[in-house]
Amino acid sequence: MRSLLSTVAIGYLFGLGIVVSGMVNPAKVLNFFDIAGTWDPSLAFVMAGALAVAVPGYRLVLAARQPVFAPSFQLPDTRRIDVALVGGSAVFGIGWGIAGFCPGAALPALGTGIPDVALFVGAVVAGVVIARALRGALPVLAGGPSRS
Amino acid sequence: MPTDFTPLTSAGGGALIGLAAVFLMALHGRILGATGIVGGLLRLDDPAGWRLRAALLVGMVLAPAGFLAMTGAWPQIDIPVGREAIVIGGILVGIGATLGSGCTSGHGVCGLARFSRRSAVATVTFMAFAFATVFVIRHGMGG
Fold it and tell me: Is residue A148 part of a domain?
């Protein structure tokens, strides 16, 4: 129970970060990518703020023998740069540029009740299902473990 | 549609995102990736993982209401694209993040924070393609 409540709190913290940072707003995200137009560099500060905490934080945490509520840390151990990684990331970037939402921004945004957000999340779910079918059919796309 | 440059709140919000990632690693030993949360909820073969992802999602969805309670306003969300762009973009995001093993949170924050070479390649790739896509849509197609 303690573990579950703390996980809800972590989700809330993440969601609050998405909201406060402005990542939750597709207009802002798309403007970050629009250097030739209405450029808004804010997103770079989101990334910098996140890494400024996560780099030392991970270093500290991963020095421990194990996490508090789990027997071990689950870290991807693949190091291979393959077609699935690069091709998948390219497709992801195109989709992000078209819609202005990424999953991390859209999940907290669901809480506003805006129907278009739910539409986006539904489309992402469809994409995940399609990708799993593709991966089953084409071994070259099997790629590494998910850290999405 | 122009948006305000908000370096302070953006960096502060980013710090909260980083903090959430660090806490999840400290408590559960897991990478905080949003597509993994969505995709993992479709899988019923790992009840403990499913509960973890469901709990994260519940917390995330509560955040806008929390913001409303603290500031008196809902977060600003303007969607400057049509429904077809939302659907096509969403499908591509779902496909790409699944094949590429991660999205902005998984690769861009968690992966980079532990200096993963795969995550660095993924982040540079999706950023480059997002810049190119927005350029083509806004300036390359008679825009």
Answer: no
